[in-house]
From TrEMBL:
One GO biological process term: L-methionine salvage from methylthioadenosine
Family assignment from sequence similarity: Belongs to the PNP/MTAP phosphorylase family. MTAP subfamily.
Function: Purine nucleoside phosphorylase which is highly specific for 6-oxopurine nucleosides. Cleaves guanosine or inosine to respective bases and sugar-1-phosphate molecules. Involved in purine salvage.
Chain residues that bind phosphate: T8, R50, H51, T184
InterPro entries per the UniProt record, alphabetical: MTAP, Nucleoside_phosphorylase_d, Nucleoside_phosphorylase_sf
Its EC number(s): 2.4.2.1
Residues involved in substrate binding: M183, N207, A208, A209
Miscellaneous: Although this enzyme belongs to the family of MTA phosphorylases based on sequence homology, it has been shown that conserved amino acid substitutions in the substrate binding pocket convert the substrate specificity of this enzyme from 6-aminopurines to 6-oxopurines.
Protein name per Swiss-Prot or TrEMBL: Probable 6-oxopurine nucleoside phosphorylase
GO molecular function: S-methyl-5-thioadenosine phosphorylase activity
Gene Ontology cellular component terms for the protein in this record: cytosol
Species whose genome carries this gene: Azoarcus indigens
Subunit composition and interactions: Homohexamer. Dimer of a homotrimer.
Record bears the keyword Transferase: yes
Amino acid sequence: MLAIMGGTGLTQLSNLEIVRREVARTPYGEPSGALTFGSLAGRQVVFLARHGYGHTIPPHLVNYRANIWALKHAKATALVSVASVGGIRADLEPGVLVVPDQIIDYTWGRKNTYFDGGDEPVRHIDLTHPYDAALRQRLLTAAARAGEGAVDGGVYAVTQGPRLETAAEVNKLERDGADVIGMTAMPEAALARELDLPYAAINVVVNAAAGRASSAEGIRFERIEDVVQESMGRVRHILEALCQD
Ligand code: HPA
């Protein structure tokens, strides 16, 4: 069963035929909301809105451990994350979809592991490739089949938020090799790996990162809202195509 984690702009999947909702309890507390089970293009899917169904949970307060644990224990066999990002690279303009292949983690103070001491022996996971290669490929193929362009590969810088970055910070992230900036891919990707849940993402570029050419006058939030609305329809198409493969 495919799990979909919806980010900003995707608090519900309008093309999902909902069968039931389930409030999950986990050893790590409560997930961001009830798990929504349903079918998408005839395939069983479980959906969760990362920031809560009312979009009230900021990135640094999302209970990532509970979210991933709940999806794994709902018998998800793969997790696709949908997340809005700012574009650093010039060609990654608002409206562009990216299937990232790397992550740099700048977050701090988040509960970022299930291996937190106690009786369990220490485990170090291999995160060389934080996104699952096969699932990435399926996403790219689905995007092509849906007739939606998606950029293959990109480095996602994960900032702490909830504030956006300064222009100098964006320059630093670019020097570090980042292509897009968001606030949620970590610890999500690492936790999914700890539970052996294949994880890949569709990023929606919703703004040019702070200080970049087209945002010279500052970041315009009304414009972001428009891009989010338009782009999430395309993401829904891709997810539908993914369910048909
Ligand atoms: N920075 C960080 N996170 C984001 C941005 C951004 O510019 N846009 C959407 N999520």
